[in-house]
Amino acid sequence: MTLPMTFTLSDDERPTSWYNVVADLPTPPPPPLHPGTHQPVGPDDLAALFPPELIAQEVTTERYVEIPEAVQEVYAQYRPAPLIRARKWEEKLGTKARIYVKYEGGSPAGSHKVNTAVPQAYYNKLNGIDRLTTETGAGQWGTALAYACSLYDMTCEVWQVGHSFDTKPQRRTLIEVFGGTVHRSPSQMTESGRAFEEGHPGSLGIAISEAVELAAQDESAKYALGSVLNHVLLHQTVIGQEAVLQLEKAGESGADVVIGCAGGGSNLAGLVFPFLRGNLTEGKTARLVAVEPSSCPTMTRGTYAYDFGDTAGLTPLMKMYTLGHDFVPSPIHAGGLRYHGMAPLVSHVVHEGLVEAVALDQDECFAAAVEFARTQGIVAAPESSHALAQARREALAADEAGTEPVIVVGLSGYGLLELGAFDSYLKGNLSGDSLLSDAELEASLATLPQVDESQIHA
């Protein structure tokens, strides 16, 4: 008898609300601060960049936020995303662990990013905005936002990190197919970009500065962020909500380990926050694991402090794990994980011990991705390969310990436009995995803004 491999949901089981973990946290997260006054930002401070609905979602303490019907209609094109029992990979590993993969690669843009791109474009359009600016690393977010803007007849302008712009032309083309315009960052179009020399490899922090700068100068434009902020993480929780229900359909009582890759934090949060709710309110005990690259070790070697979300210092100050806003990561192939900071909400739950963080080298991650592809037939994005590599470690460690855990892995997108990176790995010349020295880290952290938290007024 053929054993079940894929678990989905019926139409009436799809989430109709986003889950806000803030409502269930034992301690509230620290507020974002105005860079001038070092006091909590208010709605007026964010109005130049975001429409009122997104600002409300950014600060809400309600447990659930209803998903607009128009957004649900777009979600229905590709959601629910499947939960796949990786039986062939289990056989290859010889493990008794049960490994489930939550696969987001079936969206129009090939990643989880569409989950927030659509509501962000929708709310902006409701408020008469016709132009969105943004940044992108590997290109998944830029692709997703370009697609969402095409749905609402909006202009999408994308600043892509220079290294990714140079090495991922197919992703750039896909953004353009969906109607977006792509600029290499740093560019000569902005004051933020002109601060760097021609040919600089760029960073997400620089690209954010450029996109924010342009949006702030145009009353008809707003800025859209693909990760980090609370409302972005909120939109992604459809992933974990589906996975919790799908595990039940697979006959499991819950997960023992839930693993996601982490760059800015939206994919990780979308998967693990609904499982964290089970830990906080239902007595569940799932281990929640965030995996980052060892060359950009934000959570594992960074400091938990107030910092800018961008390089030029145009954003509010956010309490987060950071390597310093001037940090330029090594040009690894997982472009979406090359960010100096981590989402404040993810940082908070890691700091509180509710989620653990590990860092892995990209060679180990690509090896896991190739093994997974050869057994399961899915080529994972380089970002997602980090979660696969950690899942492999967890399964083999469980066999050594004589346990049989249920492991849930977030596979945030496909790697079909990243085959150049896989070619480099298979030929043995993968580059860019430069480890951060203690001296480099100390120099980068020296630029952190000085914030006296005792003077913050709630």
TrEMBL record:
Domain of life: Bacteria
Pathway it works in: Amino-acid biosynthesis; L-tryptophan biosynthesis; L-tryptophan from chorismate: step 5/5
Assigned EC number: 4.2.1.20
Any Pfam family hit: PALP
Cofactor entry: pyridoxal 5'-phosphate
GO cellular component, one term: cytoplasm
Tryptophan synthase beta chain-like PALP domain sequence ranges: 77-412
InterPro entries in the record: Trp_synth_b-like, Trp_synth_beta/beta-like, TrpB-like_PALP, TrpB-like_PALP_sf
Gene Ontology MF terms: L-serine hydro-lyase (adding indole, L-tryptophan-forming) activity; pyridoxal phosphate binding; tryptophan synthase activity
Catalytic activities: (1S,2R)-1-C-(indol-3-yl)glycerol 3-phosphate + L-serine = D-glyceraldehyde 3-phosphate + L-tryptophan + H2O
Signal peptide: none
Gene3D superfamilies named in the record: 3.40.50.1100
Keywords: Amino-acid biosynthesis, Aromatic amino acid biosynthesis, Lyase, Pyridoxal phosphate, Tryptophan biosynthesis
Described purpose of this protein according to its UniProt entry: The beta subunit is responsible for the synthesis of L-tryptophan from indole and L-serine.
Similarity comment text for this entry: Belongs to the TrpB family.
Subunit structure as annotated in this protein's UniProt entry: Tetramer of two alpha and two beta chains.
Protein name stated in the entry: tryptophan synthase
